[in-house]
Design a protein that fits this description.
The complex is a heterodimer. Helices cover 46% and strands 9% of the residues of chain A. Chain A is of the alpha/beta class. In chain A, a hairpin with a 2-residue loop joins strand 5 and strand 6 (199-200). The longest helix of chain A has 28 residues, at 301-328. By secondary structure, chain B is α/β, with parallel strands linked by helices. Chain B is 37% helix and 20% strand. Chain B has helices at 6-20, 44-48, 60-73, 91-98, 101-104, 134-138, 151-163, 174-177, 214-226, 245-254, 269-281, 305-308, 312-324, and strands at 2-4, 24-28, 53-55, 76-80, 114-119, 144-146, 168-173, 182-184, 197-200, 205-209, 231-235, 238-240, 257-264, 290-294. In chain B, strands 3-2-4-5-7-6-12 form a seven-stranded mixed beta sheet, with helices on both faces. In chain B, helix 1 runs parallel beside helix 7 (151-163), helix 9 (214-226) crosses helix 13 (312-324) and helix 10 (245-254) packs across helix 11. The relative contact order of chain B is 0.12. Classes of the chains: A alpha/beta, B alpha/beta.
Chain lengths: 368, 325
């Protein structure tokens, strides 16, 4: 018997449309309505300015630890912009900009990062999951949602986000395998930001790309320039359309970079060079997209300034609303709410004991 | 009424709930054509098709993670983990997500799923097939942990578990699957979760057990009766959330108690039961409460498991000790 090559799949493609020098590939330029282009720009800027404001708030002790998203705006928004309102977003914990796009309020984000459960409530009209902290664990939920949508013959698509580190988790592999076996309508969007806290991609995987892992599961995979919002959008639109048409899941690897720390509790200078970070700062997705919009006449210096002003006002209003809300929250007894549909008797007794303790403390304070 | 084994009774519960509610989906390894390695899902794929009875890839995390997504969507997944000894691979999905989604989203998203898994020793099985680790799940806020003790209550509890709005871990004793038959009514029967039952009345001693330990415990009560001791026997049925009302009430009448389980002793469900009895009925106690349990060791390979699993003799002896005090 001869030893022969098995033809398993075509090689994995890489997609770049608007490169880091601002060069546009007109053949590949996606046809995006003007309104959507401007919305993308506004949310990229909102994501950026909100992130910067959160860092200030964190440094001032007004919110707790949070994971900045700076530099990943394009790789989140280009993908999420392809979903319909009735579709599902299944985020990890660094997709704040994508969540804002889906309708999460700024104050909800701030409440969450200041330790209030009220910050993870999904608006009633929305089909999204809250952020998932255990790395990669949410990937399987996306598959279950997509399986259920298919069972119900709804043409919903589920988009699951995760990072490069998550691709080492068993849940990632099981999720992609299950999705391909059941041809579930899921779009897996990997935010390859090169670093899982202090571990670089080269220590996370021995493969040259993450996209190629799709081949092993029997689904299409593509690598895109994650700082090129046009490329991310084009790849995601193709994947969403395929999933909606019954063509099953896709893995998209968005190559981007975590220009900030993992969370505000992390100090990246300990494990990576400033030169590397500088290189990626130059590949900033925001001015790249802004220049593209200006070149095609969609944005002017004046309208860009107006967007900037509106976004800053929106961020300020969000911070104000969050701080107003936080003043009214904080009843410790709330921690017992929603454990089960009905609180079991023994837990109810614990809640009542805490209530008595709090009431006694209050009396002491008043009299003391 | 038909006389059924626990396997047949569980199958009846699944079949009737699937007929009634198209949100109920079974999934797991070999649950389809094979009908499950213990045949609990036998014949269901023929009746309901492969969209209702779903054979999965061999991945426990995948099964549970996918069930969570299905449940959040609005389905009622009933997943089978082939042996509870393999359920540790899905631990993080239960602890991090199934148990918390309602709490995390303030009631907006819920996970009404059931995880069924065979547990316990006594069937001469290989390693990893005989553990009794219900305390893991009972220790997780947001999960319910249910263990039936016979065909009739297994059927009624499984129906309640499927209809419950929250995630339920449902352990089925392998030793009981075909051990005996009981009359199980064709018409619907449910049992409330979180409520123990008195299965034998008595006033001298309270014997508290659940699952596979109910049979040796009832046998022990009969032997004690021959000595003139009337033991009250209580079946927990739900390990968590544990409602201690009935247990405390029983102890106020008997003043003595023995708690029986197959699981290791330290930090086992018995420790919680004893604490609740101390908190609720300390002044009625006439003797130290006894525990008859598995030892704090790995459950031995089956040639030695008989000496590990609590026996009628050990339960009787513990009862006698409390009566001597």
């Amino acid at each position: 018997m001869p030893r022969e090559k098995l033809v398993i799949a075509d090689s994995i493609e890489r997609l770049s449309i608007l490169d880091d020098k601002g060069q546009l590939d007109r053949e590949l330029e996606p046809d995006i309505p003007e309104e959507l282009l401007l919305k993308l720009y506004r949310y990229m800027l909102l994501g950026r300015r909100f992130d910067e404001r959160m860092l200030d708030l964190q440094r001032q002790g007004r919110i707790g630890t949070f994971p900045p998203i700076k530099g990943q705006e394009a790789s989140q928004l280009g993908a999420i912009a392809c979903l319909e309102a009735s579709d599902w977003l299944v985020p990890s914990f660094r997709e704040t900009t994508a969540e804002l796009w889906r309708g999460r309020s700024l104050e909800s984000v701030l409440l969450y990062y200041n330790g209030y459960n009220e910050g993870t409530v999904i608006p009633p009209e929305q089909c999204d999951l809250p952020m998932a902290v255990p790395v990669g664990s949410q990937v399987l939920h996306a598959v279950g949602l997509a399986w259920a949508a298919k069972y119900r013959r709804q043409d919903q698509v589920v988009m699951s986000f995760f990072g490069d580190g998550a691709t080492s988790e068993g849940d990632f592999h099981e999720g992609l395998n299950f999705a391909a076996v059941y041809q579930a309508p899921v779009v897996f969007v990997c935010q390859n930001n090169q670093w899982a806290i202090s571990v670089p991609l080269s220590r996370q995987t021995a493969t040259p790309t993450l996209a190629q892992k799709a081949i092993a599961y029997g689904m299409p995979g593509i690598q895109v320039d994650g700082n090129d919002v046009l490329a991310v959008y084009a790849a995601a639109r193709e994947a969403v359309e395929r999933a909606r048409a019954g063509g099953g899941p896709t893995l998209i690897e968005c190559v981007t970079y975590r220009v900030m720390m993992h969370t505000t509790a992390d100090e990246p200078s300990k494990y990576r060079s400033e030169e590397e970070v500088e290189l990626w700062r130059e590949r900033d997705p925001l001015p790249r997209f802004g220049d593209y919009l200006k070149a095609r006449g969609s944005l002017s210096e004046e309208s860009a300034a107006a967007v900037e002003e509106a976004v800053l006002a929106e961020v300020q209003a969000g911070v104000d609303r969050a701080e107003q809300q936080m003043a009214t929250l904080g009843d410790p007894l709330q921690m017992f709410d929603h454990l089960f549909a009905e609180l079991p008797p023994a837990t109810q007794a614990q809640k009542e004991a805490l209530a008595r303790e709090l009431a006694a403390n209050d009396r002491e304070e008043h009299h003391g | 009424m038909a006389k059924m084994t626990m396997v047949q009774a569980l199958n009846l519960a699944l079949r009737q709930e699937m007929e009634k509610d198209d949100r109920v989906i079974l999934l797991g390894e070999d649950v389809g054509l094979d009908g499950g390695v213990f045949r609990v899902t036998d014949g269901l794929i023929e009746s309901f098709g492969d969209q209702r009875v779903v054979d999965t890839p061999l991945a426990e995390t995948g099964i549970v993670g996918m069930s969570i997504g299905m449940a959040v969507y609005g389905l009622r997944p009933v997943c089978e983990i082939q042996f509870s000894g393999f359920s540790y691979q899905n631990f993080h999905q239960l602890e991090n997500h199934a148990a918390r989604m309602r709490w995390r989203t303030q009631g907006r998203l819920t996970v009404p799923m059931v995880l069924r898994a065979p547990y316990g020793g006594g069937v001469r099985a290989l390693e990893h097939h005989s553990e009794s680790r219900e305390a893991y799940w009972a220790h997780t806020p947001g999960l319910k942990m249910v263990i039936p003790s016979g065909p009739r209550n297994a059927r009624a509890l499984l129906v309640s578990a499927i209809r419950d709005p929250d995630p339920v871990i449902f352990y089925e004793s392998k030793a009981l699957y075909r051990a005996f038959r009981e009359e199980v009514p064709e018409e619907e029967e449910t049992l409330p979760l979180g409520q123990p039952q008195v299965v034998r009345q008595g006033s001298d001693l309270s014997l508290i057990a659940y699952g596979a330990m109910m049979r040796p415990t009832l046998k022990a009560a009969e032997e004690l009766a021959e000595e003139g001791v009337e033991a009250e026997v209580i079946d927990l049925l739900t390990i968590s959330p544990l409602d201690d009302t009935l247990l405390v009430e029983s102890l106020t009448r008997t003043g003595r108690a023995v708690v029986v389980h197959e699981a290791p002793r330290s930090f086992g469900p018995g420790a919680e039961v004893v604490s609740r009895l101390m908190e609720g009925a300390f002044h009625y106690l006439q003797a130290p409460i006894e525990r008859v349990t598995g030892y704090d060791i790995v459950i031995p390979y089956f040639s030695r498991e008989k000496e590990y699993i609590p026996s009628v003799e050990r339960i009787v002896e513990a009862g006698r000790r409390t009566l001597r005090s």
